[in-house]
Structure formats: C-alpha cells, structure tokens
Amino acid sequence: MDKRTIVKKFAVYGRNVHPLAVEILKDLDQKNLDNVIAYICKTVDSFVISPEDVMRALKSYKFEEKPKRDVKDVTGKSMCEGTIEDFIAYFKSRFEKVSSFVRRRIGGIKVSALEKFRNEQVEVVGMVKDVRDYGEFAMFDLEDKTGVVSVFAGGKLREVALELFDDVIGVVGIYRNGRIYADRIVFPDIPIRERARRDFGVVFISDTHFGSREFLEREWDLFTRWLSGEIGSGRLLDLAGKVKYVVIAGDIVDGVGIYPKQEEDLLITDIYSQYEYAAEQLEKIPKDIKIYLSVGNHDAIRQAEPQPALPKEMRDLFSSNVVHVGNPAYVNLDGLNVLIYHGRSLDDLITKIPRLSYNRPQEAMIELLKRRHLCPLYGGKTPIAPEREDLLVIDEIPDVLHSGHIHTYGVGFYRGVLVVNSSAWQAQTEFQRKMNLNPTPCNVAIYYNGEVGRLRFCK
Questions:
Q1: What are the chain's domains?
Q2: Which pLDDT tens digit goes with each residue over 151-200?
Q3: Angstrom distances, CA of residue 234 to CA of 237, 239, 377, 444
Q4: pTM, full prediction
Q5: Which of 43, 171, 345, 363 has minimal CB crowding within 10 Å?
Q6: CA-based nearest residue to 240, from 288, 292, 294
C-alpha cells in the first residue's frame, strides 16, 4: 500500500502517524489494512500513532484468515479463446496486480498528470515498453492507463534498464522536457520474511522424462529404494523416514514430437504408454508419501501457460497418493506453501540477461520473485494463454518456489523464500549435446525444518 494513502487513512480519524509505523503497515492487504487502522484508532488514545502502538495492536488484532486451499491452479478454470478482448483483459489483469505491489513501495502519479510536476521529483508506476540502448545510457517507455512517458536511465541504471522486459515497475526521478530522468527503478519484489520451518521432509524433483532412452532407471531405483528405507544408513535413513511429500515440477514423460528427430531418443514412442510407465515408476514411492505431480512442456497438455493438470485418461493411470496439479500451482503442504512452476520462462531470462547462467538456475528464479511474475517476457520462447486473470503473477508469496526444466541443480534463499531447481532424471540427449546443454541429473533437494540438503544419486 502507498505510504501516503496510509497517512490519509489515519487523517480520516484525526490522527497523525509516525513514518516507522507506516513502514510496518504498508505490506498489509487493503481489507486488513482498513480494519487494522480502525482498530488502532479505536484502542489508542494518542494523537500521533507510534510504531509501538502499531506493534501492540497487531499482536492483539484478530486477522481475518483466508480459507486454506490445498491446491490453486488453472485446472478447470480456463476460459480464454485467444480473442483480442482476452488479450486486453490479460494485460489489464497483469498491470493491476503487479502495480499494486509496486505501490506498496512508492507512490504513483498518473502519466497524464506529469506536466503539473515539471522539474520536480516524481514517482510513476507503469508497464515497460521498447527498451533502447544508446551505449552510455538507455531509454524505455513507461505506460499506465492514462498515457506513455519516456524514461532516461544513465549510469548504473542503464544496466538495470537493459534487463527489463514487459515488467510493471516504478520509476523515481525528475520530470523534465517531457521525460523522466530516473534516479531509481523500483521492482515489485517481495518483502523479507522468516524462513518457514516445518517438522517434516519434502523431496523436490523434476523432469523425470519417463519414456526417454536416456532415462536413468538405475539411479531412479536407488532414489525410490532410499525413500522406502531399503538403502542408506544413519542420518540419511532417518531423513528418508521424515519425508511426507514428493513434489515433481513437470516434464513427467519425454513426450512425442517435442523437438526435431525426438523419436531417435525415445524408448517408448507412444504417449499413453509413456504415462503408463510413469505410473509404474511412481508406484515405487511408498504409499504413505503424497506426491504432487505438475506438468511441463513435454507433457500431453497445452503448451501455453498456465497449463492445467493432465487429462483424466492420464490421471486415472496413477495411484491414489498422487495429486495432479497444473503449471504453475500453489500447494499447501501442512502449512508449507509451495509454488510449483515448471520453469520454461527461465530460458528467456537466461538468454536475455548475460549475467544469468544455466549453471546457476536459482539466480534466474530469484528474478521471477523480484518481478512478481513467472513469465515476465511476453512473446519469447514461452507461449502464454491470455486468461482473463493473469495466473502467472506471483500474488501469494510462497515459502518455496520449485522449478525444473533446464536440467541443472541449484538452490538458494531470497528474502526468506527457498528457491529450488531440482535437476532431472535424464542423461544428456543428442539434442542437448547439439545445443551445448550440460545437465546435472539425479540431484534431489530435500527440505526439512527450514533447511535444504542435496542428495546425489548419480556418479
């Protein structure tokens, strides 16, 4: 929430508010913010509301809890037909959602009102268009619902500007001669939070590619035997006993016709038979472990994101401990909130931003959190379905962001959120060799009590 709006809300009650108190309140959603301010003004007698007043009120105020859902995805909700109206609604939804996060960090002057602030510092929120590099500086257009303004980004901001896509951002700078000379570029970003700590284990894997000639069956068997408590000793065996969930981030099977001459890489050439084999392999995981199974671009589902879960004829092949979800999907694991996203847009980020690398996928994933969007580049390698609501916006901050797709392993923490890219179970294919892609297969990320460990099942 914009800080000035918070000050105005207190003024309605005839109160002033300390700047640090505003900082504490700015990340509350609209409904809770209004109710908390009313509660503070009802229970505090002071004319100036202090940070201590706010902290005491927050401890005693009973927040309205959102109903908990085990799964949130697009499955059964897709309504788009690809019309112009769908695209307009999609970009409107993206702008409104992401701009609301930016406005919690800075104010916002409408582009149409900028002429009133000549030679003054302004704060504008908009969607980036047409980034241009002029060597020592860059320029881009910033568009809101009222118009478009050019932004000049010099010095270190040039590098930041050159990494912008179709992002919704804030710009702080001086408005002069019809353009903004930027002093600061503000991303939507996520607030700092405590690491989530839960007393159970979660295994994160991805890109099993069942049906591929390069599927690493021996290593998969070692993994499932460890989960079953058949191999391992000491701490590793104890850790296996704590695993309650396995989360798989898509590309369940290798698919058919995904890339040129793929048939040469397939052990199983029929798509239905690939899923039968996948179901057989997942049967090796103990039945008391719940499996959340997402999809990716190799699966038998539409290519455009967001993707629904597998069709019923495929889902029916799997055992009852498998929960089928779309891509992306929010899943609630006994209070641990996990955002599963297969990760196709990571190709776009790594291609467009030179400092990013396939060898450190977690850094590209952190960019998604900063931009509060799972596919910030429209028109790249990742097709997007123009749903009336943009379900690729990261509107709920997860405890864990889990991806795959690029077949390399990487983990990290960003502002308290665990980011995991969990590698693959497929050795390097001929196609990958030609593309100079070097996977690090059979690496498993395991979460337990706020920490993450790495298990290698490959030599």
A1: 3-60 (1.10.8.60), 111-186 (2.40.50.140), 201-456 (3.60.21.50)
A2: 999 999 999 999 999 999 999 999 999 999 999 999 999 998 889 999 99
A3: 6, 9, 46, 18
A4: 0.84
A5: 43
A6: 288
